Amino acid sequence: MVQIIPKAALPHPDEVPPGLRTASVAARSITLREPRPIGFPLMFDAQMKLIEPVVAFLHEHAVQRAHTTDTVRTYSEILYDWFESLEQNHIAWRDADAADLVSYRNRMMTQPSDHTGRRYSIRTINHRVRGVLRFYEWAVRTGWLAASRLTGKGNAFTVARRARFTRAQGEAVDYSLFVIRQYESMPRPLSAAQARELLAVLTPPYDLMARWQIYTGLRVSELLRLTVKDVACSRKRPEPPFQLIDVLRKGRKNGYVIASRSLLEETAVFIARYRRAWLRGDARADRGADDSALFIGSRGTVVSKNRYQQVMQRAGEACGFKASTHLLRATFACTLLARLEQLAKAGESINPLLIVKVLMGHEHIETTDRYLRAITIDACVLGEVFDSLLADPAV
Questions:
Q1: Which residues contact 53 (CB under 8 A, 6 or more apart)?
Q2: Which residue range(s) make up the domain with 50?
Q3: For 171-198, how does the pLDDT look when each residue is reduced to its tens digit (9 = 90+)?
Q4: Is-contact 194 210, C-beta < 8 A?
Q5: In what helix (H) or strand (E) does residue 59 lie, and over which residues does it extend?
Q6: How far apart are CA 392 and CA 20, in angstroms?
Q7: Full-model pTM
Q8: Is 313 inside a domain boundary?
Q9: Is residue 81 part of a domain?
């Protein structure tokens, strides 16, 4: 069975047997040019032999390219699943061909996930297939493989570039043999009633986190990186109706969001009423929470991404509709676009798509275009959402 073992910190010489203390001291004095961070995923096969090409691939993306922890974890999960499948079928990774990849893809189409127990979505299947192909292309490029049946222009089973959608093109189609044809789904934002009901069910700090996503469109990873210093209210007189908040975007790009005065005031109340009390309790329990993180849970520890997403899903189930953290972000994008489209039609010299692209932190305008097509489909509902949520953030 393939295993992933996170890299641990070097033990202190006093923590190892006496015979190894000299080596432990020497190891701690070695300076590495490209040290792997604590928690770096190390992959081993069933014989506990290090799978070196996978480690080298992850090292390039984690250390040399400085990709985020989430990206590296995603790559490691994809390769773990692929190598586990190869091992179960007694196939050497170097000998894998198109038939093996198609079989791997078809297994995901017919069998539920071992982790969630649910069927794989088409998007997840395609994402994993592309991840495997990316690894083999890298292996050939870096010399781990002289050639592979999964790469090369002469291969009849090549994968086309990811299709991009434009409003004039219609539905995007991927003609690759490996990648399943996938039709783009339209974002479905929350209605005003659903948003109010969801926020009423959520408890601190999750209700405030949801408001931040609805009012600013932050991704979960960006939301969890906020610190108390980032959201400190301005002391200017008169107080401005909004404040620009600098955020670190996906891919470590710098960006900003616009936070309303009411949202910042509500955040200040959370800090004074809940966060400080929970941190005092954490100090008594000596859990060592991060004092700078904005969103601290009732146990005095930083809220994790998985915990927040689980709470959001359960809150939606309690309300009788599907809710997710990405849905909150989509609600912001659709409502803002609806209002900006109204202003543009009224004669304002603005580009609604470009404004939302910047505030959402999108790299490509085609991504933002999905929300514009969504408001065209359901303009009445979106207008209601905007009027009740963004025009009056205190709702």
A1: 93, 139, 144
A2: 3-142
A3: 333 335 677 776 666 667 888 889 999 9
A4: no
A5: helix 52-59
A6: 65
A7: 0.67
A8: yes
A9: yes
Q: What is residue 112's three-state secondary structure?
A: coil
Percent of the chain exceeding pLDDT 70 equals 80
CA torsion 336-339-343-345 (nearest 10°) is 110
- Beta strands 41-44 and 242-248, pairing class: unpaired
How is residue 312 written in tokens? 């959001």
CB environment 314-334: b (16+ within 10 A), e (fewer): ebbeebeeebebebbbbbbbb
**Cα–Cα distance measured from residue 177 to residue 4, given in angstroms and rounded to the nearest whole number:** 30
CATH number of domain containing 346: 1.10.443.10
Write out the DSSP string of 327-384: HHHHHHHHHHHHHHHHHHHTT----HHHHHHHHHT-SSHHHHHHHHHHHHHSHHHHHH
Which residue type sits at 118? Answer: R
DSSP 8-state assignment for residue 66: -
Backbone angles phi, psi at 216, to 5 degrees: -125, -20
In angstroms, rounded to a whole number, what is the distance separating the alpha carbons of residues 221 and 240? 27
321-353: pLDDT as tens digits: 999 999 999 999 888 888 888 888 888 888 888
Chain segment 76-90, per-residue pLDDT in tens: 999 999 999 999 999
Give the SS3 label for residue 44: strand
